[in-house]
Amino acid sequence: MSAELRVAVLGVGMMGGFHVETLSRRTHGARVAVINDFDQTKAAAVAAAVGARVEADPLAAINADDVDAVVIASPGQAHQQQVLACLDRGIPVLCEKPLTTDPVSALDVVKAERRTGRQLVQLGFMRRFDPEYAAAKQLIDSDAIGRVLLLHCIHRNMANGPHFDSAMMITDSVVHEVDVARFLLGQEIASVQVLKPAATGAAPERVADPMIVIFRTANDVIVTVEIFVRAQIGYEVRTEVVGERGSTLFGLDQHGITKFIGPAGNGISGGTVPPGFIERFAGAYEIELQHWVDAARTGGIDGPGAWDGYAAAAVCAAGVEAVRTGKVVPVTLESVE
Q1: Overall domain count for the chain
Q2: Containing domain of residue 153, as a range?
Q3: I want to staple 11 with a disulfide (CB 3.0 to 4.6 A). Which of 74, 127, 189, 211 is the partner?
């Protein structure tokens, strides 16, 4: 491997473009060598800004001699082929969620990685690297609040287009709470139920927004998730962990609380609600990428792996079924032994 980790970034939309910027400006030990995107004009502009070259074929980018590792931020339907190509070459890959678009193909990736005898696939569940989530995990593991009984999650977006239906609310948004629950609790999710309150007027016809998603874990912890992707005021994510002897609540003042005198002479208190997920979790993404780069330079990963991507896919599949049927849907995880 060269002195710097030479990275190919596949897909340079909002997420991939942010990764290119972070790897190039705020990460040590790596440089972006190759850019790939179906939009050749965008790829050329992003590549020129960081001194990279453009490769039109994603598989050629993965197998290029000047590439040591890969970041995948392409559309989800391309992930399976691209991740498997990284495994075939034996190089580390950071794959944004989803690992693949369904549990069966995700399990195939897990099995393919197992056959290599190495951990090479890291999933982009960046909240694990957010300092507040990391602190909550340490608190839980220290037993300071006792055995965890409940986990409450709020996930609100400012707006989404009409294509973002109830199923996508599970697979593209709640998927993060799936990983948060598994990470904080150290347990698999056993079942999913979805409740549908009255829909906001901003939701398209036949789209249930907001929804309450209820997970029950293998050890009977209940996890509630409010998912509301057209909340209009901004991007809000907060979490409360309730244990037998205490609780911890975080995500409330991530962007500051300001107190001032209003026009009528009364005191006013308020904060700033970020407009999107990158603003909310920029620090977590930067920490995630640095951890990945440091591990990839030695040929491995440092974060959630292929199994975590498969487990998330399995829970989301059950969640989509729960949206459709209104029933409590069990989650099935296959063995890879």
Answers
A1: 2
A2: 128-279+313-330
A3: 74
